[in-house]
Amino acid sequence: MRELLLEIWTSVRRNKLRTVLTGFSVAWGIFMLVILLGSGNGLKNGVLANFNDYATNSIDLYGGRTSKPWMGYQKGRRIRMRNSDLEILRREFPEVEEVAANAWMDTHTVTYGKEFTKAWLRGSLPKIQMMEGIKLSAGRFINDEDIRHRRKVIVIDEPMQRVLFKGKNPLGERINVDKSVFTVIGILKGDAQRNNSSCFIPLSTGQLLFEADNPEVNNIILTLQNIDTDTELEAFEKRVLRRLSIEHHFDPTDESAIWISNTMENYKNIMVIFAGINLFVWLIGLGTLLAGIVGVSNIMLVTVTERTAEFGIRKALGAKPSSIIRLILVESVIITAMFGYVGMVFGVAVMEGVNYLLESGAGASQGNGATMFLDPTLDLGVATSATFVLVIAGLIAGYVPAYRAAQLKTIDALRYNK
């Protein structure tokens, strides 16, 4: 093996510039492949990060408008879900694991001392925090006791904290929401630089104070269990529509009456999209690498031509064609792998640098809002795949020259003149 490596080193050293220029094309191909894969990985991580905290086994139900007449009712009638629907879904559907609801109370004036701001109020049930992945920077979220006793408590966001409290700790402080007094129990973690505020209050309290005790809700969120296929999910949705159609008097086949947003289906669709993006990235990256492979193959063909007489002497002394093939293939793999790893290292370094800048920016903003690009680094599986690609590329690049060298006839090789 030592003699084999020495021969390869001698061959490379005789043609330094040609080898470096050819190897650069391989390094560039791997570099672009790593950059593309890292960018695709960052895009995927950014989008999936917005799903990580949200329950992916959930569906949202929203009241809509009927598109069909039914039992004397005209089409176009507004369907509004109620508190009683939550109990129906919880009691009659064993697939339902948890149930929660939201009701939006429009904008209201919030004051603290001489400071004031406008805020959207959102009446919610405690399970909303788990289902929507709501995070707090301080305090607590709404609990069951708040709902049961209709407590006047509020979870404010960071923009409201910035405007009303000027850096002061708001927990336990009392603020006025229109003419009602609420106690601050928590602070939502998020983008403190936003100008608009959105706050949570107990659903029962909001319906009593701001909706004249109207039991309507804007949406219901369900988390599901024991549903493994699209067919089972579709059957469940139809049963839900059929049951709610009895309560709200609409055609059970009218999908416009209750609008269903399926987080599980959305998640699956996004995964399919990213599988397609990943395939496209690999095709583009391998296409770029192909140019480098062609270059390496060409240089090996030139090497075979230059060493034709040498191969003739080897054969005359008893060298087998397999030893010549091994020599060419090993030289091709070494050149491809050596320059390929250089390109890979630079590509990984660039992605790590981008990730460092992203993390630094996120730390400076101290927010956790929606992001579209996150952690564009490569995992071990991708690095292993790239290594495998390098070895295969070297074998492909060296196959034709090695085959040509093995087919040389000894007498023709000995008579060859450069």
What features would you describe in this structure?
There is one protein chain. The strands form two sheets. Strands 1, 3, 4, 5, 6, 7, 8, 9, 11 and 12 form a ten-stranded mixed β-sheet that branches. This protein has a two-stranded antiparallel sheet with strand order 2-10. The protein is an alpha+beta fold and 418 residues long. Helices cover 56% and strands 18% of the residues. A hairpin with a 2-residue loop joins β7 and β8. It is elongated. The chain has 13 helices and twelve strands. The two termini are 29 Å apart.
What is the strand and helix layout of this fold?
Layout: H1 2-14, H2 16-52, E1 58-63, E2 81-82, H3 83-92, E3 96-112, E4 115-124, H4 128-132, E5 136-139, H5 144-148, E6 153-157, H6 158-165, E7 174-177, E8 180-188, E9 197-202, H7 203-210, E10 216-217, E11 219-224, H8 230-248, E12 258-262, H9 263-306, H10 308-316, H11 321-365, H12 380-406, H13 410-414
Parallel strand pairs: 4-9, 6-8
Antiparallel strand pairs: 1-11, 1-12, 2-10, 3-4, 3-7, 3-11, 5-8, 7-8
Helix pairs in contact: 2-9, 2-11, 9-11, 9-12, 11-12
